């Protein structure tokens, strides 16, 4: 079950930026993405996909695993 809250409030901006990057990489095209709407608005619009959060987690885990190896 998702908590839908940021554990480190100072990270909100970076998480929003990361969310936008993942959405673009997944080729989710909305006018909001092109018009630079707020991440909250975009998140509500594309939240039904549910894949963005999962992809974000996969990428964060992969990055940490890479750091452990290096």
Automatic annotation (TrEMBL):
<protein>
    <submittedName>
        <fullName>Alpha/beta-type small acid-soluble spore protein</fullName>
    </submittedName>
</protein>
<dbReference type="GO" id="GO:0006265">
    <property type="term" value="P:DNA topological change"/>
</dbReference>
<dbReference type="GO" id="GO:0030435">
    <property type="term" value="P:sporulation resulting in formation of a cellular spore"/>
</dbReference>
<keyword id="KW-0749">Sporulation</keyword>
<dbReference type="GO" id="GO:0003690">
    <property type="term" value="F:double-stranded DNA binding"/>
</dbReference>
<comment type="function">
    <text>SASP are bound to spore DNA. They are double-stranded DNA-binding proteins that cause DNA to change to an a-like conformation. They protect the DNA backbone from chemical and enzymatic cleavage and are thus involved in dormant spore's high resistance to UV light.</text>
</comment>
<dbReference type="Pfam" id="PF00269">
    <property type="entry name" value="SASP"/>
</dbReference>
<dbReference type="InterPro" id="IPR001448">
    <property type="entry name" value="SASP_alpha/beta-type"/>
</dbReference>
<dbReference type="InterPro" id="IPR038300">
    <property type="entry name" value="SASP_sf_alpha/beta"/>
</dbReference>
<dbReference type="InterPro" id="IPR050847">
    <property type="entry name" value="SASP_DNA-binding"/>
</dbReference>
């Amino acid at each position: 079950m998702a908590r839908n809250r940021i554990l480190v409030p100072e990270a909100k901006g970076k998480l929003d930026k990361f969310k936008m990057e993942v959405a673009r990489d997944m080729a989710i095209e909305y006018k909001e993405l092109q018009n630079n709407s707020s991440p909250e608005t975009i998140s509500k619009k594309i939240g039904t996909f549910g894949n963005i959060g999962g992809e974000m987690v996969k990428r964060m885990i992969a990055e940490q695993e890479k750091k452990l190896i290096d």
